[in-house]
Design brief:
Largest interface: A-B, 35 and 28 residues
Order of helices and strands of chain B: HHHHHHEEHHHHHHHHH
Oligomer: heterodimer
Low-confidence stretches of chain B: 1-5
Number of domains of chain B: 2
CATH superfamily of the largest domain in chain A: P-loop containing nucleotide triphosphate hydrolases
CATH class of the largest domain in chain B: Mainly Alpha
CATH topology of the largest domain in chain B: ABC transporter involved in vitamin B12 uptake, BtuC
Strand order of the largest sheet of chain A: 6-9-10-3-11-12
Number of strands of chain A: 24
CATH topology of the largest domain in chain A: Rossmann fold
Helix content of chain A: 25-40%
Distance between the termini of chain A: 44 Å
Number of domains of chain A: 3
Number of strands of chain B: 2
CATH architecture of the largest domain in chain B: Orthogonal Bundle
Helix content of chain B: over 70%
Largest sheet of chain B: 2 strands, antiparallel
Low-confidence stretches of chain A: none
Number of helices of chain B: 15
CATH class of the largest domain in chain A: Alpha Beta
Chain lengths: ~525, ~400
């Protein structure tokens, strides 16, 4: 190959307990270019970058990494950073209460003698590197958390510059930024390119990628599909979308039979929510949705679009502030001030993060299944009817096939799929009319997924209104009768199961983004 | 081989581990002290001396279940004791007014701590460190660093009195028939409740323990009941403190295992965010746990003052540590969400038997502290390691 290739990753295969997250991935990055990685959520982009940066050490994957002409075997982040490869993750790795200058040199301190920090040198050098990312006027002595997210992201980049970076990897750098901040960050990337730094960017925002990158490698299902080069290939969003989603639909979703839709039993009107930490930042704008009895409605969108925020703000105001709007269940407006009210209004919410928000991992299956329904269904004057609980837990364990020795088994020892079933049972036991399922199959294997789809179908058949939130577009298409596309806190479109395709969803999002850009300018 | 309608499950022996440890420690000291700790008087002392620690351990368990502790209980014990003392000695008022006032003061300290913890979100460690300092200072101020006493015999009954007795001559001393009668009732109740629970399990077709295991468990428990009650019968009969303890264990055992409110404490301790999203008002749970701790501290303060026959400024010093240690020794998880009332009580008796045995053996309190510290560390280390192996 020619000399101007800075990085080659050949035949990279990485397995997680038998499941191939990466399957023979190949990628070549030219020196001095901005190379984009595109793919759906879970396609393997972040895994690939973790292999590159040594987060997954050499030996835990197959294949070769050739960087600047030599074969590399990184065992941790330190190894890769020593070679000038720096990765900036989606979640910022800044210590919020330390000063800007200290954060820039975190783990890379300027010292006068061994272990003693030279503060003058630290501040002077920090100012230098900050100037390179357009923050020359920033006070380096203020704590990092006094700055906005956009600037914090730039400080992350400055931190990388301080390490003499040659290959900069940015994982979703603009996910948390507004348009103006995003634009600034992209321009900084172009500036760094002029300074000779090579970058790899992972992003879902295809318009940004089109603007900033020189070539795009598309990853799908853990495989590298193709690489598009600016000026050589067709370089449009539509072209990228096609490569990202171009796969056959197989029958991974159980067929729904005799769909009987009833009247509208769940309705949200003019729903507005503001960010919990920033009362001026509107997270959801004028959301209106309707769900009929027996209907499965999807909320599609990219990560950070506001779907979980919508669900949690409806479910007992568990997210956000200054919430306004109406929620109607069975035609009557319900006043929901907390989760208890939501449960009483026959609404259930199954969180996207079962370990953090769904389960008491040290308690047993029965206890977890019963906890939400207990005040209403399993007790009298505050005293628990233990036998009824045991019977109900046994029935649901059987009904949705939780694989465990007994209902006394501690939930933390179950597999992800079985844990998810326990959470679903917990909410089925509250006898809801409306079930909101947020990423119901995240991180669980294909077999358990199928069983959960069957449960969804069964619930719909029983006349419940179901809302499914999923970042896997195929899942939404495979399970839902109708879906709303949500983007940047607004409804970007509504599609029926007849007209929906992954392309249509992406087009909805892109069209909405463009509209937002025009409104903004 | 599985028979059709009979499901059998093995007993979880770990649950009884600390119980066996308690018996083992007791037997070791029985050998070391040449049987001195087996004497009727010593058994009686064991119960009277540990009454207040047991009361505090019961309240502390609820705090520990939330994943926190209450450092202020020792000071609240002292404040409440001194309030009772001042009312009876200085104001010369009725003991019932003193008791109610002491309980009210305990309630107020609980509300004070609970408010800061639950509704202002101040970490319990900090809030109760503050109540510990404030309570101790308040006690010295109220008592002007003096001891208040002596109290009337009718008040001292709470901490040092006995239930009515019917004594008959027996061997080289006497035997109290009331104690024997209570032991008979307790034995019958134990056997009946065990049989009924087996019947319920069979009715609902739940798994039951093998018969020999149930029988062994019953046998051991009956032996302990008869051992204790026989010893007490040979002394002065049943201490009033024992009655308070039994009632509290029954009430709190019921609350923590059979009520919605009790299980909500476990849910909160296991995963606060998940509890919130399950419709549990976790602030409210926090608040009541600390209010409850305040009231039980007051009760312990009343019992302690009655046993001493006076209120002293140093009363209850270090009790919080004994109560916290009891919970951990009794198998409660440091991170919260796991632990039982019976465990905490057993833990309190492990500490008590250690204290008692070492005193009889003639070890100084300095050495006793070293041993108690080592036992606490050993018990929790074993607990953590055994869990790690499983997970």
């Amino acid at each position: 190959m020619s000399d101007n290739i800075i990085l080659e990753m050949n035949h990279i295969t990485k397995e997680f307990s038998g499941v191939k997250a990466l399957d023979d991935v190949n990628i070549k990055v030219k020196k001095g270019e901005i190379h984009a990685l595109c793919g759906e959520n879970g396609a393997g982009k972040s895994t690939l970058m973790n292999v590159l940066s040594g987060v997954y050490p050499h030996g835990t994957y197959e294949g070769d990494i050739i960087y600047k002409g030599e074969k590399c075997a990184f065992h941790n982040l330190r190894d890769s950073e020593a070679k000038g490869i720096v990765i900036i993750h989606q979640e910022l790795a800044l210590s919020p209460l330390l000063s800007v200058a200290e954060n820039v040199f975190l783990g890379n301190e300027r010292t006068s003698m061994k272990g003693v920090i030279d503060w003058t040198e630290t501040r002077r050098r920090a100012q230098e590197v900050l100037a390179r990312v357009g923050l020359e006027h920033e006070d380096v002595n203020v704590p990092v958390n006094s700055l906005g997210v956009g600037k914090q992201q730039l400080i992350e980049i400055a931190k990388a510059m301080a390490k003499k970076v040659e290959l900069l990897i940015l994982d979703e750098p603009t996910a948390a930024l507004n348009d103006e901040e995003s634009q600034k960050l992209l321009d900084i990337m172009l500036e760094l390119k002029r300074q000779g730094i090579t970058s790899i960017i992972i992003s879902h925002k295809l318009n940004e990628i089109e603007y900033v990158s020189d070539s795009i490698t598309i990853i799908r299902d853990g495989k590298s599909i193709e690489t598009l080069v600016k000026g050589r290939d067709e370089y449009t969003e539509d072209r990228v979308i096609k490569a990202m989603v171009g796969r056959e639909m197989t029958n991974r979703y159980p067929k729904r039979e005799n769909i009987m839709l009833g009247k509208v039993i769940f309705e949200v009107k003019n729903w507005n929510v503001f960010h919990p930490d920033d009362e001026n930042r509107q997270v959801l704008k004028n959301i209106n949705i309707k769900v009929r009895a027996g209907e499965v409605v999807g909320l599609a969108g990219l990560m950070g679009a506001g779907r979980t925020e919508l669900a949690m703000s409806i479910f007992g105001r568990s997210y956000g502030q200054k919430i306004s709007g109406q929620v109607l269940v069975n035609g009557n407006e319900v006043k929901i001030r907390n989760v208890k009210d939501a449960i009483a209004a026959k609404i259930a919410y199954i969180s996207e993060d079962r370990k953090t928000y769904g389960l008491n991992l040290i308690a047993d299956i029965k206890e977890n299944m019963a906890i939400a329904a207990r005040p209403q269904f399993f007790s009298k004057h505050g005293v628990i009817n233990a036998n009824e609980e045991i019977l109900a837990a046994q029935e649901y364990k059987k009904r949705i096939n939780v694989k465990a020795n007994s209902i006394k088994q501690v939930v933390g020892s179950l597999s992800g799929g079985n844990q998810q079933k326990v959470v679903i049972a917990k909410w089925m036991l509250t006898q809801p009319d409306v079930l909101i399922m947020d990423e119901p199959t995240r991180g669980i294997d294909v077999g358990a997924k199928y069983e959960i789809y069957c449960v969804i179908n069964e619930l719909a058949k029983a006349g419940k209104a179901i809302i499914v939130i999923s970042s896997e577009m195929q899942e939404i298409i495979g399970t839902c009768d109708r879906l709303y596309v949500i983007n940047e806190g607004e409804i970007a479109g509504e599609l029926t199961s007849e007209e929906v395709t992954q392309e249509r969803i992406m087009q909805c999002i892109m069209a909405h983004n463009r509209k937002g850009d025009e409104d903004g300018n | 081989m599985e028979t059709k309608n009979k499901k059998i499950v093995k007993m979880d022996m770990k649950q009884y581990g600390m119980f066996f440890a308690l018996i083992a420690i007791y037997l070791i000291f029985a050998v070391l002290t040449k049987g001195a700790n087996l004497s009727p008087m010593n058994i009686n002392n064991l119960i009277m001396q540990n009454g207040y620690v047991v009361i505090l351990a019961i309240g502390m368990l609820l705090c520990v279940l939330t994943g926190n502790i209450d450092l202020g209980v020792g000071s609240v014990v002292a404040v409440c004791g001194s309030v009772a003392g001042i009312i009876m000695i200085d104001l010369k008022m009725n003991m019932w007014i003193a008791i109610i006032a002491a309980l009210l003061v305990g309630l107020l300290t609980g509300i004070f701590a609970g408010f800061f913890i639950a509704y202002l979100g101040i970490p319990p460690f900090v809030v109760t460190l503050a109540t510990m300092l404030m309570g101790r200072g308040l006690t010295y101020t109220l008592l002007q660093a003096q001891t208040k006493g002596p109290f009337d015999q009718s008040y001292n009954f709470i901490g040092a009195g006995f239930l009515p007795v019917i004594k008959i001559p027996f061997g080289d001393g006497t035997l109290d028939l009331v104690s024997i009668f209570v032991a008979v009732i307790a034995s019958v109740a134990l056997v009946v409740s065990e049989l009924r629970s087996i019947a319920t399990k069979k009715k609902y077709n739940f798994a039951v323990n093998p018969t020999w295991q149930t029988a062994t468990k019953l046998g051991v428990m009956l032996f302990i009941i008869w051992f204790f009650f026989y010893k007490l019968a040979r002394y002065n009969g049943l201490p009033f403190v024992l009655l308070i303890m039994v009632i509290l264990i029954a009430i709190y055992g019921f609350i923590t295992s059979k009520t919605v409110a009790g299980r909500q404490i476990y849910a909160l301790g296991g995963n606060r965010k998940a509890a919130n999203l399950s419709g549990i008002d976790t602030n409210k749970v926090f608040f009541w746990v600390y209010v409850n701790m305040g009231v039980l501290s007051a009760l312990a303060g009343i019992v302690l003052a009655a046993r001493n026959g006076s209120a002293t400024p140093k009363a209850g010093d270090g009790f919080e540590m004994d109560a916290i240690a009891s919970c951990y020794i009794g198998g409660a998880a440091v991170a919260g969400g796991a632990g039982t009332i019976v465990g905490a009580v057993v833990g309190a008796f492990v500490m008590g038997i250690l204290n008692n045995g070492m005193s009889l053996f003639g070890w100084s309190t300095d050495i006793q502290k070293i041993v108690k510290g080592a036992v606490l560390l050993g018990a929790v280390t074993m607990d953590v390691l055994s869990k790690r192996k499983k997970g």
